[in-house]
Amino acid sequence: MPDAVAQVRSRGGVARTSTLNHRGVGRREVERLVQRGHLVRVKRGWVATPDADALLVSCARSNVVLTCVTQARRLGLWVLADDARCHVAAPAHAGRAPTATALVHWARPVVPRHPDALADPIENVLAAIAACQPFECALAVWESALQKGLVRPELLGRLALPASARRLLDEAEVWFDSGLETLVVPRLLWLGLPLRRQIWIHGHRVDLLIGDRLVLQVDGGHHVGAQRAEDNAHDAALMLLGYHVIRVGYGQVIDGWPEVQELIMRAVAQGLHRAPGRR
């Protein structure tokens, strides 16, 4: 494989010809590789490998970068938004949507974008999500990024974040399971009860302890087979210890929250969140 092609692959399969020139690949060499089919011309100043990511190629052609929930998904973050549009960012008065259904973010980035970049850095992704998504959905993505170690809160705090992102930074915390739990806590704050996430009881971590004794367990897709059996055994042990357990799944939290909330409200009304002897 020609060295120039390896350099393009190392940049995600799409690269500026000026960057290749700077790295010692002459214009004639680039043209030769294009003619032989090792590279394809994206537009003037950009080339790509024939098997390059179509989204990155479209971004190079349109002078935009991937951002917001689109890039968050590509980074493996927990994204709730059911949004099929491609979210991209562009400088003010520059760039265009790569497709008719793409959503362009025009806000000034909190971290400068390198001219070679076709995807936003994580700080810009989170800022775009803060401005674009509902609060609880954005909070789930932010906490997912913190949990994966893609960014550190103290470094985010030094940036000139917009107010929407600053609020998320103040609220976001690092936990160990899915973003479903992130959605639940803000929805229950109105109860005015202590809400403790990811605490250990009887040798296992529980998703949420409401008050003293009401446990809410939120199952993701991995709660099957042996995991399900272990969960059931722990639920039984908790109930023998005087806890009351409500276990719900993804679909209930996302599509049936009113019913889940009613279960919790009725449990609280019966005092199931209180330790014996407490009123």
UniProtKB/TrEMBL annotation:
Gene3D superfamilies the record matches: VSR Endonuclease
InterPro entries: AbiEi_N, DUF559, Restrct_endonuc-II-like
All residue ranges annotated as the DUF559 domain in the record: 191-268
Official protein name in the record: DUF559 domain-containing protein
Pfam family, one: AbiEi_4
Ranges of residues in domain AbiEi antitoxin N-terminal: 8-45
Species name: Microbacterium saccharophilum
